[in-house]
Amino acid sequence: MTSVKQLTSDTMGTIYELTNESGTIVRVSPEGARLLDWVIPIEEGRDIVAGYDSIQGHIDARYYGATIGPVAGRIAGTRFTIDGKEYQTEDNDGGNTLHGGFNGLDTDTWLAETFEDQTKAGVIFTTDRRDGTGGFPGNVRYQVTYTLSNDNALSLTYDAVTDQATLFNPTNHGYFNLTGDTQKAIDTHLVQINANHVAETNEDVTTTGAKTAVAGTKFDFTKEREIGDTLLDDPFLLDHEQEWDLQVTSPDQKVRLTVTTDRPAVVIYTTGTGEVGAAMKTGPMANHGAMAIETQGVPGTEKFQQFGDITLRPETPFHSVTTYRVHF
Ligand code: FUC
After folding, report:
1. Of 115, 174, 191, 284, which has the highest C-beta tally within 10 A?
2. Claim: this prediction has a pTM higher than 0.90
3. Of 200, 205, 321, which is closest to residue 263 (Cα–Cα)?
């Protein structure tokens, strides 16, 4: 059996708790349609998702575990054009629009609807936005569905419909530390990313439009290796030639996380000085204490056609699935 129940606590507010037969527990919040906890039933329960010890901490810091959008990453110069019409978005990141701007989808309190059956349980989060919110055109309904299955997969399904052409490139900003303790750096985690190229970035982390082969660079994770102390904030261009796109294994090898997505890229962001000392569930965040695994369209796609198309049009509803699976 899998199940979902609604709980309320003073520190976390309303949460939805998903459980499966193996005793895995996933907790999500309507605040930002956010992933709070993913507790693996080993030892006394190992929570592999980094997060604050209160929902207010999450709201203030914004991105931990949250649904990010309408456009994940940076819109360079806070402007984009669709069908010849230019739109202006907010400057919340040194001349660029980061993660949807000041009021990204992470700042919405989403409506929640639960479902459960023998093999899976979950929550459908929905939020509606008016034309022009944050500078993005279209009255848009966004949905994110979290589904926990009995085989320890957590799927995040993104859907959206609009009444006029707009941009949509969502992600989830969950930070992971497979030791369960963000006071420990992730440096000895083993990582494999099935990507032979990264998108090249400028100093301000916007993309240049070029792609770089990973061979011989610090971005080469095509064979499993320790992530080390390198700081990453880079879009890996997924080859999509294997069963999964990315795999992370805990230093004690007791937990392995595989990620499979239909999106063309994954941004790996390893936390640095900006996050050090944050009041996490397990105490103050270490330098390099977690990694965000953000599947998405390649940042800058609105500008660089070679990366694809993130235009959402009325006649083509958006649908995308990323599946995270734990092996323990
Ligand atoms: C990631 C990065 C950013 C940023 C943020 C918290 O997605 O690309 O640089 O600092 O999340």
Report:
1. 174
2. yes
3. 321
Domains of the chain: 3-327 (2.70.98.10)
Q: Please report the atom of ligand 1 found closest to the CA of residue 205.
A: 9
Rounded distance from Cα 294 to ligand 1 centre (Å):
9
The predicted pLDDT at position 249 comes to 98
Which residues have any ligand 1 atom within 6 Å of their CB? Answer: 63, 73, 205, 233, 267, 269, 292, 294
The 3-state DSSP composition of the chain as helix, strand, coil percent (nearest 5) reads 5, 45, 45
Q: Is 240 assigned a catalytic role?
A: no
Structure confidence at residue 233 (pLDDT): 98
Contact 155, 262 (CB under 8 A): no
- Residue 106 sits at φ, ψ, to 5 deg, of -65, -20
| Sign, Cα dihedral of 285, 193, 63, 174 | negative
Give mean pLDDT, residues 177-184.
98
Instruction: Give the whole-angstrom CA distance, residue 172 versus residue 161.
Output: 19
Count of H-run helices and E-run strands, the chain: 1, 31
Alpha helices in the chain (DSSP H): 55-61
Pocket probe mutation, ligand 1, options 233, 271, 295, max atoms within 8 Å of Cβ: 233
